[in-house]
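Friendly challenge for the regulars: who can give me the structure tokens for this chain first? No prize, just bragging rights.
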Amino acid sequence: MRMFKVIEGGRAQAVQMDDGLGAGQGPSRDDVLGEAARRLNESGYHLSRVREFATGVPMLASLKYLSLQIDFAAETLSRLDPIPEDFRSDGYWPAG
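First reply, four minutes later:
Bragging rights claimed.
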């Protein structure tokens, strides 16, 4: 559980952010798939894919390959038992 301060209208208020992990509970398959989706979004893959559909110009092969690598890493991580607590670490994911 992380604590963040949210400032609204000049008044500070403490807000608890839940990581999605319950007490004593490890990460789930959905957590791993969410991290994969986040990494794919940050890579620019979706924008490039939309551009490909709109213009007919093929997307970069490197982005297609990165998508395959991220999918593979997510599938592999989600099958581990238990899933590592630090599954968001860059060491588990391909470099984008």
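The mean pLDDT is 84. The chain has three helices and two strands. Your move, everyone else.
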